[in-house]
Amino acid sequence: MAGWIRRLLERRQRDSFSKTTNPSSSQGTASSHSASSSSSRSRCPDLSSGARWSRLYDLCVCHSEEDISEAQLLVSYLESQPEGLRCFLMLRDSTPGSSIPSELCQAVQSSHCWALLITRSFLLDPWCKYQMHQALAEAPMANGRTIPVLHRLQRSEYPKELRFYYYIDITADQQRGFQQVHRTVLHYLEELCQVDSSKLSSPSSVDTETGVSEEGHRTTHSELSSTDSG
Which residues form the TIR domain (predicted)? Predict the structure, then answer.
């Protein structure tokens, strides 16, 4: 009888020991997994390069006055994201008293990317078309800088000037369209910052205008000095 009680007590002790050890290990695994997943979700691209800050805005939203509500929704979404995108909105960020053409040109030149909110009102607005042409002239073949955003517009009405650019249609799913605009701007900024970082880390910098490295300049100067001495 005493042996049976002793075996029962030993079994209970083993069960209680397993219950106290196993949950802690499983909780540790779960916590580490959640920490890694949360860190991966919270990881933001490195956009701290000086190339990004060379312009005042990351994105200029071009729109007609009739489409200000949709433009504000797009800007609110982009500016609320963790990357803190800097957006230019005409009615909000224009300088009071300045002329419309100068403000439109300045907005284009001060932004890395341009989102063209193309609607029927956009196509009928001469200032919108003016700003669209300014953006195309600023960077005619730059991937990711000009972002056509269609809203309640038939494909047949798509501007011929933009026929070589893929567009984002936000008519059916506005949230998904805003996410695509966000990813497009981030992709361009990431590539811009990566190119700038690689230039800074390279041993010899190259003059972007002449294509001649600093070493080439030094060699040329030394050759000139030796020629003069001769």
Answer: 55-186
Is the sign of the CA dihedral 110, 113, 114, 115 positive or negative? negative
Q: What is the pTM of this model?
A: 0.70
* Integer Cα distance of 213 and 114 in angstroms: 33
Asked if residues 45 and 83 have their Cβ atoms less than 8 Å apart, the reply is yes
**CB-based contacts of 79: which residues, under 8 Å, 6+ apart?**
85, 86, 87
Helices 68-79, 174-201: axis angle to 10 degrees equals: 50
Tens digit of pLDDT per residue, the chain (230 long)?
Answer: 455 555 655 665 665 545 444 444 444 444 444 444 444 344 567 898 899 999 999 999 999 999 999 999 999 999 999 999 999 999 999 999 999 999 999 999 999 999 999 999 999 999 999 999 999 999 888 889 999 999 999 999 999 999 999 999 999 999 999 999 999 999 999 999 999 988 888 765 445 444 444 444 444 444 444 444 44
Q: In what order do the strands lie in the sheet with 57-62?
A: 87-89, 57-62, 111-118, 146-150, 168-169
Distance linking the first and last C-alpha atoms of the chain? 116
**Count of Cβ atoms closer than 10 Å to residue 49 Cβ:** 18
